Automatic annotation (TrEMBL), chain A:
Domain of life: Bacteria
Naturally occurring in which organism (per UniProt): Sphingomicrobium lutaoense
Keywords (A to Z) from UniProt: FAD, Flavoprotein, Oxidoreductase
Chain ranges of the Acyl-CoA dehydrogenase/oxidase N-terminal domain: 3-126
Residues of the Acyl-CoA oxidase/dehydrogenase middle domain: 130-223
GO CC entries: plasma membrane
Cofactor(s) essential for the protein: FAD
Protein family membership: Belongs to the acyl-CoA dehydrogenase family.
UniProt-recorded name of the protein: Alkylation response protein AidB-like acyl-CoA dehydrogenase
Gene3D superfamilies per record: Acyl-CoA dehydrogenase/oxidase, N-terminal domain, Butyryl-CoA Dehydrogenase, subunit A, domain 2, Butyryl-CoA Dehydrogenase, subunit A, domain 3
UniProtKB/TrEMBL annotation, chain B:
Sequence ranges assigned to domain Acyl-CoA oxidase/dehydrogenase middle in this UniProt record: 131-198
Domain Acyl-CoA dehydrogenase/oxidase C-terminal residue range list: 226-361
Family the entry assigns: Belongs to the acyl-CoA dehydrogenase family.
Oxidoreductase listed as a keyword: yes
Acyl-CoA dehydrogenase/oxidase N-terminal domain span: 6-116
PANTHER family (UniProt xref): ACYL-COA DEHYDROGENASE, ACYL-COA DEHYDROGENASE FADE28
Keyword Oxidoreductase: yes
Necessary cofactors: FAD
Natural source organism: Sphingomicrobium lutaoense
A GO term, aspect molecular function: flavin adenine dinucleotide binding
Keywords for this protein: FAD, Flavoprotein, Oxidoreductase
Name the UniProt record assigns to this protein: Alkylation response protein AidB-like acyl-CoA dehydrogenase
CDD domains named in the record: ACAD
Superkingdom of source: Bacteria
Length: 386, 373
């Protein structure tokens, strides 16, 4: 405990010295986030300095081993760092699918060479990753994917199409599920890593109902992928995919917290005018939001203690995304016709309405709510198969 | 850490089998109901609580108790909820103990509570809805003490109580927090009339009528006109405890239902294989987990005397209440016809939930106030 207190004092002093005032202001949207990568344009020097300072200490990934670019911190030190960052409103220095999704999978299933090659550049924000999972014919039934990877001796030849690839048009590399065998549905999938600049890769953004285009269609036409970029064994990619999905669901479930834990109550923040039914719904929402906040804390503490059920991320993803959709429904209702302005300065180009529509994808991406409920029913409740 | 520590887990490992055995429906709730027991619970079991150190769970070790906190009391209450075990634990060992601790009344009543012999009851509500600030019962100064006039209802375990903790108004007017005084009124006070009422869940809750009931100054708990703080402290413990009991009720009803989904066959297969039921079951499970986490959070904050304790206690009572309601409704529906029979236990859960939902404030009360009142 004494060590923890020393660590806290040192961390506080270091953050005080290295986190500029600009990096202590809240992010207004995903656009303010630092995503890193070969083509990333830093919004300011402050953003670049903050990333470099944090990456220099391995604190973009504080709990990864230091030999792979992490901070090598213990769970309690990691918690202290997060608390101290939250205390001064410090921004996350790097938002990255490499950190939240691929990294944990590589730490578990990667070869030593793969870890040394890929993890440090993820930690430093040098390579931006995207996820090639869904296909036009494989959404909820993800394991039905058809993108083929043929064995050509020293490399695989990849052909096919992915969809809902988040930020594929801005990513440097992709982690991608491909079919290497038709003998078995789940047992014929492999997990490949490759450069998005490889010949034969192309992307096309998909415009959503919100007007935003966070997703792409991604096409592979005779893409050559060296064999040493296969993670885990051939035809065992589903194991990696499921492990990674657990991490993705944890990340998405954090949306239920509405950006920052302990944020103000909607019932206090919003003007309900003379609408008692809205007031009642806000009160009910606040109860559910605070209860979910407790659940998130409980879930994280169980994860750290190794006591969480493997299917519990599904529960968190389901509850968190449904809650976030409710939050935005209420924000829209409370805003009245102001909230319906789509193109105007007053509405910050329709932020309320666009964000509201964006959240509708939360309960679809990363596995629909119905898929999550099915997983809970099967693996936790042990209900019989249909 | 928002999870049970090793000692709390050990307590759970002891209490769970104890309650599932000695506190089970067949030998407690159903047994006493069918016998027409006027107290609605077994004094023998209450003494067993004493032997195991449970009735004195919140009482300091210096006074013979176990010296534990709200988290531990809630561990016991979740098991009480799961088994629908009738006992004065919530009102006496949790709420009343928090009302009188640190006052001279503690010395008088703690020894009997530690032994599992004394029963206390909270006489607070005056109308059909919980409204502590609305307390209107009159406490008129007279001579060295006070004279009480008015009526109380929903006084859980009133008939069995050795004493009542009574909230009355010595100053101010209904709706104000100031001016409320708490009194410890003995069972045999002159002018106190008691009507023993059986509730829907076959528990007992009295209606009390105070007609010129004279009490000495030393009947006052805490400060004259300053009862609100003690009342809040007691209600916070009672509400967090009730939330945990509701989580137990939800979990008990859910466990019974999930077993049924796996066993019951229609159309040649288990009904739990139908997706319509699977999704409802998984949703309910997720809600119960959330309610339990919220309740644990409230209990921890109470034990830390944290500034957010009031708010999270309100969240816990509101969330656990709503979730338990969903749980019992789904339980009865998914059991189909058998769930409508008195022979099956699932209906007991529905009845108990309705009572616990009202006790110390229903979900809408707490959602509206969120600990501000």
């Amino acid at each position: 405990m004494a060590d923890d207190e020393t660590f806290r004092a040192e961390t506080r002093a270091w953050l005080e010295a290295n986190c500029s005032p600009e990096m202590r202001t809240p992010m207004r949207s995903e656009k303010d986030a630092c995503w890193g990568g070969r083509n990333f344009k830093f919004a300011s020097d402050a953003q670049r300095q903050w990333l470099e300072a944090m990456a220099g200490r391995g604190w973009t990934v504080p709990d990864w081993p230091s030999e792979y670019g992490g901070g090598g911190l213990s769970p309690s030190e990691t918690k202290i760092l997060k608390e101290e960052m939250a205390a001064i409103g410090a921004r996350v220095p790097l938002t990255s699918f490499g950190i939240s999704m691929l990294g944990p999978a590589l730490l578990k299933y990667g070869t030593e060479a793969q870890k040394q090659r890929f993890l440090p550049e993820i930690a430093r924000g040098e390579i931006r990753w995207c996820q090639g999972y869904s296909e036009p014919g494989a959404g909820s039934d993800l394991a039905g994917l058809q993108t083929r990877a043929e064995d050509k001796g020293d490399h695989y030849l990849v052909n096919g199409q992915k969809v809902w690839t988040s930020y594929a048009d801005e990513a440097d590399w992709i982690f991608c599920l491909v079919r290497t065998s038709n003998e078995s549905k789940h047992g014929g999938i492999s997990f490949l890593l490759f450069d998005m600049e490889s010949p034969g890769v192309s992307t096309r953004p998909i415009k959503l109902i919100s007007g935003y285009s966070p997703f792409c269609e991604t096409f592979f036409d005779n893409v050559k992928v060296p064999k040493d970029q296969l993670v885990h064994e051939e035809n065992k990619g589903w194991t990696v995919a499921k492990y990674l999905l657990g991490h993705e669901r944890e990340m998405i479930s954090g949306m239920g917290l509405g950006g920052s834990a302990g944020s103000s109550l909607l019932s206090e923040a919003l003007d309900v005018g003379d609408d008692p039914l809205l007031a009642a719904d806000l009160a009910r929402f606040d109860v559910d939001a605070l209860a979910f906040q407790a659940m998130s804390e409980h879930f994280i503490d169980k994860l750290k203690a190794g006591e969480a059920h493997p299917a519990e991320p599904s529960l968190m993803k389901y509850a968190g995304t449904e809650l976030n959709k409710r939050r935005h429904e209420l924000l829209l209702r409370a805003g009245g016709s102001d909230a319906l302005e789509w193109e105007s300065e007053r509405s910050r180009e329709g932020k309320t309405a666009r964000d509201w529509l964006r959240t509708k994808a939360n309960s679809i991406e990363g596995g629909t709510s119905e898929i999550q409920l099915g997983i809970v029913a099967k693996h936790i409740l042990q209900l019989p198969g249909a | 850490m928002l999870k049970l520590n090793d000692d709390q887990q050990m307590l759970l490992d002891t209490v769970r089998p104890f309650m599932a055995d000695e506190g089970r429906i067949e030998t407690q709730l159903r047994h006493w109901r069918d016998k027409g027991c006027p107290d609605g619970f077994g004094h023998g079991l209450w003494e067993r609580f004493g032997q195991l150190g449970l009735s004195g769970i919140l009482i300091p070790e210096s006074a013979g108790g176990s010296g534990l906190g709200q988290v531990e009391a809630n561990v016991v209450l979740e098991e009480i909820g799961r088994n629908l075990t009738p006992s004065p634990f919530l009102t006496t060992a949790v709420t009343a103990v928090r009302a009188i601790e640190g006052t001279p009344h503690a010395e008088r009543w703690f020894p009997g509570i530690v032994e599992g012999k004394t029963v206390a009851a909270i006489a607070l509500d005056e109308g059909p809805r919980h409204d502590p600030a609305g307390t209107a019962m009159e406490a008129r100064r007279s001579g060295n003490g006070f004279t009480l006039n008015g009526s109380k209802q929903f006084v859980v375990h009133g008939r069995s109580a050795d004493f009542f903790i009574v909230a009355a108004r010595s100053g101010g007017s209904a709706g104000e927090r100031e001016g409320i005084t708490l009194f410890a009124v003995p069972r045999d006070a002159k002018g106190l009339e008691l009507e023993n009422v059986t509730l829907a869940d076959s528990s007992k809750a009295a209606r009390l009528d105070f007609d010129e009931v004279a009490v000495d100054a030393d009947a006052v708990i805490g400060e004259v006109d300053g009862g609100w703080n003690l009342l809040r402290r007691a209600l916070r413990a009672g509400r967090a405890g009730a939330a945990s009991e509701l989580v137990g009720i939800a979990a008990g009803a859910f466990a019974m239902t999930n077993d049924y989904l796996r066993e019951r066959k229609q159309f040649g297969r288990e009904i739990g294989s139908f997706q319509a039921l699977q999704h409802r079951a998984a949703h309910l499970y997720s809600e119960i987990e959330i309610a339990r986490a919220a309740t644990l959070k409230a209990a921890q904050l109470i034990d830390e005397e944290h500034g957010d304790a009031e708010r999270f206690t309100a969240v816990a009572k509101a969330k656990a209440g709503s979730v338990a309601r969903l749980a019992v409704q789904e339980a009865v529906q998914m059991h189909g016809g058998i769930g409508m029979t008195d022979e099956h236990d699932v209906g007991f859960y529905m009845k108990r939930q309705a009572v616990m939902d009202e006790l110390f404030g229903r979900p809408s009360f707490h959602a509206r106030h969120l600990g501000k009142d």
